[in-house]
Amino acid sequence: MKQISTRFSMAVHTLSLIAVSPNECTGEDIAGSVNTHPVVIRRIMGMLKRAGLVDVRPGVGGASLRREPGRITLLDIYRAVNVTDGDRLFRIHDNPNIDCPVGRGIEQALQRELDEAQTMMERRLERTTLAELIGKLK
């Protein structure tokens, strides 16, 4: 079974670290905390920068949040790092057999359920800010 990308959790970790330790956040520092390769963090930081969530200082390094943690939701972060393919959390297999009574209708029947599940998940992520999540770390 294919798992959802870990970019989301790494991005949340990264932004949380920048929020609580703004003066100590080089790519190396973040990579050490996340326990991953700095290249992975650079890619994630690029996505977060394009989404307007961070500023990255070239040269000496370092990063800062562009918004207060209370104004960044988990949904903002989720969307910033492109966790899903084509903004869809769930995908339906290609080319079901239309000659089969199940194959003929499975996409339409299942897609409604999957769309609703995704909507519920996104609404839940939208209710939690980065500040609230950081508060749970203490």
UniProtKB/TrEMBL annotation:
Superkingdom, taxonomy of origin: Bacteria
InterPro entries, per database record: Tscrpt_reg_Rrf2 (IPR000944), WH-like_DNA-bd_sf (IPR036388), WH_DNA-bd_sf (IPR036390)
PROSITE patterns tied to this protein: HTH_RRF2_2
PANTHER family according to UniProt: HTH-TYPE TRANSCRIPTIONAL REGULATOR YWGB-RELATED, WINGED HELIX-TURN-HELIX TRANSCRIPTIONAL REGULATOR, RRF2 FAMILY
Protein's name in the database: Rrf2 family transcriptional regulator
Source organism per UniProt: Cohnella hongkongensis
